[in-house]
Specification:
CATH topology of the largest domain: Alpha-D-Glucose-1,6-Bisphosphate, Chain A, domain 3
Oligomer: single chain
Strand order of the largest sheet: 1-5-4-2-3-6
Shape: globular
CATH superfamily of the largest domain: Alpha-D-Glucose-1,6-Bisphosphate, subunit A, domain 3
Radius of gyration: 24 Å
Number of strands: 21
Number of domains: 4
CATH class of the largest domain: Alpha Beta
Distance between the termini: 36 Å
């Protein structure tokens, strides 16, 4: 017989059950309590007790990523009770931040709410609207499940004080999330996150949160039309449009918006991967609905084998990311996925060709190639912490990208990553190159010859126990590597200290050098949205001629593989 659970745990679980507004999670929690207590108050089910303890060990912490976690009952899961508290904290924050003059004039009190097609997304969005109206604010729901960039656009378009999108992006099917934006259309950063978290902490009971039964607005399709009208301005109507594309939304909400955007921009309709065309919260054809994950693109490759397109484009489920694959006879399936850094450099080059001016920005974990492109073009350049919440705040931003397939090509329209406008710009670039008998791969070769071969890779370790990540970071701090892959570590930065250019963050950065290598760089950090330790690697090699590219790529791949092995050993992962 298992030990009896503590009275405190049972009391907290019962108190939560009494307030839970969702019949589904009430039933789940009641069942766990019954199994954990057993007949006559005895604990009979160790697994039920363990599951109960997990749900009440702590609570989901609200931060710069908002909330993200597994669906289920209890404060450590995503559910209506957690979302209602988060919405009430946001409402209190917005009310405090809004000036009395702004509210009196009818400005500064609107919160726009979007949602994807995951389980519970609409429920969480509706609850958020009810909380906002109950708090005396105005609320507007997007008309249906839509891409996250439509929500980011709507905030600026409607002059809202804040916005929320309910999505877990590319997380597994059992997850959902809650992402918050402020009135500039960019994601929250400190101190807004801590301010909202403090308001959430001040809530003692759901009963004290007024929930309106009506009074919010459901926006019409005109907001989607406005987004699309803006999106097509990212491409030049005089440029070529002859391009065959296979597209997959990975069971997400991107299909209708992307297909319409392509049509309005004058491109042929992409061939949509039939098995992944419809929104489906269970994501039945993929283990993880992320174009970067092994197997996620297999159906797109299979469709391409039949259609014979010029390129393949994929969005993640909320369509704020964009993945691109190009023909490659040497690769499995005959297609090669471009890395986010490849696409980031291609789009940066395309915007330079369009004579774009302003700041080109990327993150400290992305390739340094964009900096060389910007320097050669005489435009500004900035490096930020990881995430679009930081990229969006680069002074004079004209273009920003992060290696995790996120691209902002029109910051005045959407001040966040946008997989729809990125896809349009990729299509325009590919069609323009095609007219000259060239490809995206040819342009990548040109960039390598001009700026050096910038090869990137990633070591990503998913864990069940977050302590393993903390232990690895501590090990690297206490015993920092001095040589990796035969390259000497010339500088090691502990990013928790911060700097004049970067706020403090949990991360480590190493600069390396060695014979035949222009430079190398490694950044190690815990993921902000998943239970992963992520290591970002880059090696830069000089390339004299086009004939040297094949050998240089082989050399770079070998160096990156060796770095991964040595870094794994140093971190103990």
């Amino acid at each position: 017989m298992a030990q009896a659970p503590t009275t405190d745990l049972l009391a907290r679980a019962r108190a939560w059950l009494a307030e839970d507004p969702d019949p589904q999670t009430r039933e789940e929690l009641a069942s766990l309590l019954a199994a954990a207590e057993g007949p006559e108050g005895r604990t009979e089910d160790r697994r039920a007790w363990s599951r109960l303890a997990e749900r009440f060990a702590d609570r989901l912490q609200f931060g710069t990523a908002g909330l993200r976690g597994e669906l289920g009952a209890g404060p450590m899961r995503m559910n209506r009770a957690v979302v209602i508290r988060a919405a009430a904290g946001l409402a209190a924050y917005v009310r405090k931040e809004a000036t009395s003059a702004a509210c009196a004039s009818g400005l500064g009190d609107l919160v726009v709410i979007g949602y994807d097609a995951r389980h519970k997304s609409y429920d969480f969005a509706r609850d958020t609207a009810a909380v906002m109206v109950g708090a005396g604010l105005r609320a507007a729901l997007l008309p249906r499940p839509l891409p996250t960039p439509v929500l980011a656009f709507a905030i600026r378009h409607l002059g809202a004080a804040a916005g929320v999108t309910v999505t877990a992006s590319h997380n597994p099917p059992q997850d959902n999330g809650y992402k918050v934006y402020l009135g500039d259309g960019s994601q929250i950063v400190p101190p807004a996150d801590t301010g909202i978290a403090a308001e959430i902490d001040a809530i003692t009971s759901l009963a004290e949160i007024p929930l309106a039964e009506s009074g919010w607005e459901v926006l019409g399709e005109d907001v989607v039309e406005a987004y699309l009208n803006r999106a097509v301005t990212t491409v030049d109507p005089s440029t070529p449009r002859d391009l065959e594309v296979v597209y997959t939304p990975l069971h997400g909400v991107g299909r209708d918006t992307l297909v319409t955007a392509f049509k309005q921009a004058g491109f042929p309709a992409p061939t949509v991967v039939a098995e992944q065309a419809e929104p489906d919260p269970d994501f039945p054809t993929v283990a993880f609905p992320n174009p970067e994950e092994p197997g996620a693109m297999d159906l797109a490759f299979r469709t391409a084998a039949t259609v014979g397109p010029d390129i393949i484009i994929a969005n993640d489920p909320d369509a704020d990311r964009c993945a691109v694959a190009v023909p490659d006879h040497a690769a499995a399936h005959g297609w090669r996925m471009l890395r986010g850094d490849d696409v980031g450099a291609l789009l940066g080059s395309a915007l330079v060709a369009k004579r774009a001016t302003g700041t080109f920005a990327t993150t400290i974990v992305s390739s340094t190639l964009l900096g060389r492109i910007a320097a050669a073009a005489g435009t500004g350049y900035a490096e930020t912490l990881t995430g679009f919440k930081w990229i969006a705040r680069a002074d004079g931003l004209r273009y920003g990208y992060e290696e995790a397939l996120g691209y902002c090509v029109d910051p005045e329209g959407v001040r966040d990553k946008d997989g729809i406008t990125a896809a349009l710009l990729v299509a325009e670039l590919a069609a323009t190159l095609k007219q000259s008998g060239r490809t995206l791969t040819d342009l990548l070769d040109d960039l390598a010859l001009e700026h050096g071969l910038h090869a990137t890779d990633q070591l990503s370790v998913r864990v069940e126990d977050l302590k393993l990540i903390a232990d690895a970071m501590q090990r690297l701090r206490e015993q920092p590597p001095t040589v990796l892959a035969g390259l000497r570590v010339t500088k090691a930065d502990d990013l928790t200290a911060g700097s004049a250019d970067l706020p403090p963050t949990d991360g480590l950065r190493y600069h390396l050098t060695g014979e035949g290598v222009r430079s190398a760089r490694i950044v190690v950090r815990p993921s902000g949205t998943e239970p992963k330790l992520k290591c970002y690697l880059e090696v830069v090699l000089p390339v004299a001629t086009a004939a040297d590219l094949v050998g240089a790529r082989a050399q770079a791949a070998a160096v990156l593989d060796s770095i991964k092995r040595d870094l794994s050993a140093a971190a103990g992962i």
